Amino acid sequence: xxxxxxxxxxxxxxxxxxxxxxxxxxxxxxxxxxxxxxxxxxxxxxxxxxxxxxxxxxxxxxxxxxxxxxxxxxxxxxxxxxxxxxxxxxxxxxxxxxxxxxxxxxxxxxxxxxxxxxxxxxxxxxxxxxxxxxxxxxxxxxxxxxxxxxxxxxxxxxxxxxxxxxxxxxxxxxxxxxxxxxxxxxxxxxxxxxxxxxxxxxx
Length: 203
Known about the structure:
Layout: H1 2-14, H2 36-46, E1 50-55, H3 59-69, E2 74-77, E3 91-94, H4 101-105, E4 109-112, E5 116-118, E6 123-126, H5 135-139, E7 143-149, E8 153-154, H6 157-161, E9 171-173, E10 178-180, E11 186-188, E12 195-202
Parallel strand pairs: 1-12, 2-3, 2-4, 4-7, 5-8, 7-12
Antiparallel strand pairs: 5-6, 6-9, 10-11
Domain LUD: 40-201
Pfam family, one: LUD_dom
Protein name: LUD domain-containing protein
């Protein structure tokens, strides 16, 4: 048995193999946009997400407005969420110590920051870094309110990837969670939040 196996492997190794053809790497790694933040907003809205452009000074008030409009009573948040973002009138559950899955599932939504955003695709990338928390926090609640700063917006995917650490747990968010079955019936909220609302902070 061993000799037959060895013979077969020897024959396989004896087969001449052509050298791999070189793979061209001449695709664009940078692209220009007249208004990269405006393009990002447009593309995110295409995904049926709600987007607001605000200033740094307006941010806490707009967070409160978003939550009040949805009649939110409880929110989960990463432990390092800025104090000014924790608006009054809402019960805040900070993920410290880490909350259980039932606890995260019991709140109305989650508020986080982001790592980087991609204008051309309308994608927000989370890497469990500052003001983002564990991946669980942004996949379980039905509503995600996400803060993206203008200086985090890159035009293209290659430019965004250069700002990310590939060893971190990366989550790419392109609109609310949605999927379709074979008959193209759209179902939202299966793999993540049914509603995505984005606050883009200018300046």
